[in-house]
Automatic annotation (TrEMBL), chain B:
Domain Colipase N-terminal residues, every copy: 5-43
Organism: Erpetoichthys calabaricus (Rope fish)
Cell compartment(s), UniProt: Secreted
The keyword Secreted is annotated on this UniProt entry: yes
Originating gene: CLPS
Keywords for the protein's UniProt record, in alphabetical order: Digestion, Disulfide bond, Lipid degradation, Lipid metabolism, Secreted, Signal
One GO cellular component term noted in the UniProt record for this chain: extracellular region
Gene Ontology molecular-function annotations: enzyme activator activity; lipase binding
The keyword Oxidoreductase belongs to this UniProt entry's keyword annotation: no
Designated name of the protein: Colipase
Full-protein positions shown: 19 to 115 of 115
Complex formation: Forms a 1:1 stoichiometric complex with pancreatic lipase.
Domain of life of the source: Eukaryota
Length: 451, 97
């Protein structure tokens, strides 16, 4: 079957759009009038209240603050969500702090608050409508395709892919946890893929399989750079018990959204946080999360690591052909930024003792908390390696502090200390070496100073 | 092995609490008298802290292990649990003094 809408073209439900293993239920997309797609323009001249523009009536655009000759970023929401939800306009607001752009929040709740299988088809019409608007903006405001960047969350990510299929040379698409059902394992014309824009970056935060883990996002790599923060499946801070989750710091509504899809929503929270904290989300290129946790993919190459989020295009891998997976750890609450260090230490002491070691880092910009490194048998003259994701960017290191303890009585009052400690900073591979004098008893801080 | 998930004990940071003993971090923290208390990390060196008290919750967390909350404890303050200090490392201070 097929349905055609003026201005937007025809849409079929033949294979691969439906009737396949991934897409058993066939649905045709709704007409644009029923979906009632709304474009809400924010600029630095109107940060708090939007101006509604529509390609159907170009006078709304000429009357607005829309200006050619600068980047236009468009943000689309996903299933069940809506365009005037806070996270879209808050993201625009943060972008205005760092750049002068046209920021358009796209609302299609008319087509997203229905069955998922219908919503997954509706994004084709929404993608066509956005492409129609971009075409008009390019004609009347001398904009080039490279000036446009579409940020799509969940179904919105594949909707951005639809736009990319219609606008050749679209500047950038950012997929925030692209939706898995009806898209994972489908051909590239159906889902988001690297051919949809000059640069496609994706953040996976709910990549566990839908069955049985209720993971809503895709695990499959979709772009030029695919980031899997915290491994991409279980985000820190999303495992809270029910009461703590719903009664959120930002209120009951945000808490309820998190209760329903905490991992899935983290993708846009990380992106928003990256706008004002560029180097707080460095991605380390690695084949698997296990390899990353084991430290095989550390530190960054000399060229530097790409930054997950807003500034991803700044560090691009050599070839565009291959797809690259990147891993990093984030915080469990805002700010989600973390800075990764490798710590290698050689211990001294009078005897071996089982225990947990912690290290805190001190630098020109401040000091970090005590971070657990490893829980093992601490043997004098042995060397141990661990990794720290510091919540503070301490800058160039001045000193470090070491402390150990174990949850048992130590009648012999053993002493363990650090002979030498080397800290390597991930982002620029720089090393700092410190030495300690003597050994300390349990729960006593040992200061390590430059050797 | 994931530590056992507790509703009332072994709570992670961000989870609601009424007694610091419930939290893995041993600090049940609230911003002000009216806000809900949540488990939070203990204070690092140079951060604001409150000395260990018998109350369940803190306006400022006690210090991490090995650090001391340097405050001039006033009787009034200890009753209203509002005297705060800064976490310092006494070992290092004595070396450098």
């Amino acid at each position: 079957a097929e349905v055609c809408y003026d201005r937007l073209g025809c849409f079929t439900d033949n294979i691969p759009w439906a009737g396949t293993a991934e897409r058993p239920i066939a649905k045709l997309p709704w007409p644009p009038e029923q979906i009632n797609i709304r474009f809400m323009l924010f600029t630095r001249q109107n940060v708090l209240s939007y101006q509604e523009i529509t390609p159907v009536d170009p006078s709304t655009i000429s009357a607005s603050n829309y200006k050619g000759g600068r980047t236009t970023r468009m943000i689309t929401h996903g299933f069940v969500d809506k365009g005037d939800e806070n996270w879209l306009k808050d993201m625009c607001k943060m972008m205005f702090q760092v750049e002068d752009i046209n920021c358009i929040c796209i609302d299609w709740k008319g087509g997203s608050r229905t069955s998922y299988t219908q919503s997954a088809q509706n994004i084709r019409v929404i993608g066509a409508e956005i492409a129609y608007l971009i075409q008009l903006l390019m004609n009347d405001y001398n904009q080039k395709p490279a000036d446009f960047h579409i940020i799509g969350h969940s179904l919105g990510a594949h909707c951005a892919g639809e736009v990319g299929k219609r606008i050749k040379g679209l500047g950038r698409i950012t997929g925030l946890d692209p939706a898995e059902p009806y898209f994972q394992g489908t051909p590239i014309e159906v889902r988001l893929d690297p051919s949809d824009a000059v640069f496609v970056d994706v953040i996976h935060t709910d990549a566990a399989p839908l069955i049985p883990y209720l993971g809503l996002g895709m695990s499959q790599a979709l772009g030029h750079l695919d980031f899997y923060p915290n491994g991409g499946e279980q985000m820190p801070g999303c495992g809270k018990n029910v009461a703590s989750q719903i009664v959120d710091i930002d209120g009951i509504w945000e808490g309820t959204r998190d209760f329903v899809a905490c991992n899935h929503l983290r993708s846009y929270k990380y992106y928003a946080d990256s706008i004002l904290n560029p180097d707080g989300f460095l991605g380390y290129r690695c084949p698997t999360v296990e390899a990353f946790e084991a430290g095989n993919c550390f530190p960054c190459p000399t060229k530097g690591c790409p930054m997950m989020g807003h500034y991803a295009p700044q560090v691009r891998p050599a070839t565009n052909a291959e797809q690259f997976k990147f891993f990093l750890n984030t915080g469990d609450a805002r700010p989600f930024t973390r800075w990764r260090y490798k710590v290698t230490m050689t211990l001294i002491g009078d005897r071996a003792v089982k225990g947990l070691t912690k290290v805190s880092l001190y630098g020109v910009n401040g000091n970090s908390r005590q971070h657990e490194l490893f829980k093992t048998t601490l043997r004098p003259d042995s060397t141990y390696t661990g990794y720290i994701d510091s919540e503070v960017d301490v800058g160039d290191l001045l000193k470090a502090k070491f402390i150990w303890n174990n949850q048992q009585l130590n009648p012999l009052l053993p002493k363990i200390g650090v002979k030498t400690l080397t800290v390597q900073r991930g982002k620029d591979r720089q090393e700092f070496t410190f030495c300690g004098s003597g050994a300390v008893r349990e729960d006593v801080l040992q200061t390590l100073t430059p050797c | 092995p994931p530590q056992e998930k507790g509703i009332f004990i072994n709570l992670d940071n961000g989870e609601l609490c009424f007694q610091s003993a419930q939290c893995k971090s041993k600090c049940c923290h609230r911003h002000d008298g009216l806000s809900l208390a949540r488990c939070t990390s203990r204070a690092a060196e140079n951060q604001e802290c409150s000395p260990l008290t018998l109350y369940g919750t803190y306006y400022r967390c006690p210090c991490e292990s090995g650090l001391h909350c340097d405050t001039d404890i006033t009787i009034g303050g200890s009753i209203t649990n509002t005297n705060f200090g800064i976490c310092i490392d006494r070992n290092e201070k004595s070396i450098s003094d």
